[in-house]
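During the reporting period the student researcher (J.K.) took over the structure-prediction task from the postdoctoral fellow and processed the backlog of single-chain submissions. One of the processed entries is reproduced below for the supervisory committee.
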Amino acid sequence: MEVLKLQYQDPVGMSIDYLRQFEPEEGYWLANSYGKDSIVVEDLCKVAGVKYESHHCHTSADHPKLIYFGRKYYPDTIVDKSEWTMWNIIPVKGVSTRIRRFCCSYLKERGGEGRFTITGVRKAESANRRKNRGLLETFAAKKEDKILFNDNDDDRKIIEICAFKGKRVLNPIIHWSDEDVWNYIKSRNLPYCSLYDEGYKRLGCIGCPMSYNRVFELKQNPKYYNAYLRAFDRLIQNRLKTRESFRWKTAQDVMNWWIYEMPKQEPGQMELEFDDED
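J.K. obtained the following structure tokens:
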């Protein structure tokens, strides 16, 4: 894929250049999570004058305020619903962690096959950035589980191609800083979800292992906490039926490990990591 010379060097101009350079005839498939990065990308599409179709993947575990925000300000966004929900994935697939985070592939990765997708992925969302990355990346089979829509990994690129999923992915604001994002939002007077003003830095599924304040989220949303407990209980019952070995006896045991890392796991089991990355 030929990359044209950029006309602008500022973050906004560069992103608009990318959007215009790679615009497909049928238009982009825009993955809109309703978060700050997504609303910036959608507005950039409007400024760039490119054709796009906005989609939001309903996960069943998004914060209610985020859902209400999307309905109010993005009524034309297509809401895609999977046959899977967070509550029927866990009993079948197990507990998702930072290391083994499979839920996004079921809840957010099923749309846009064969389309040129746009995301709000940014390297600044990762604690460890890598320098001198190339513009074009091809995912080999061993990378088939990469979360394209919202995996703010330190090896993300501006243009990504996933032959396994039949997707080309453009990350037009991948090099933007948090300051760039908020300055753009304020300069364009864009509405954003009120959760950011309430201390949330990352919006997505309540209880997501990638969120640093997941305990706070679950305390603020006890219905989701109880929904996770019910899902954990069904997971245990399913394991008993298939006679698979499973350390925990109760749903609360699973919750304590998943959220509070207690009690300690047995050797060979994966640990849940906590750090300050968004």
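The committee noted the following: The beta strands are 28-31, 52-58, 78-81, 116-118, 136-139, 159-162, 167-170.
J.K. will present the remaining backlog at the next meeting.
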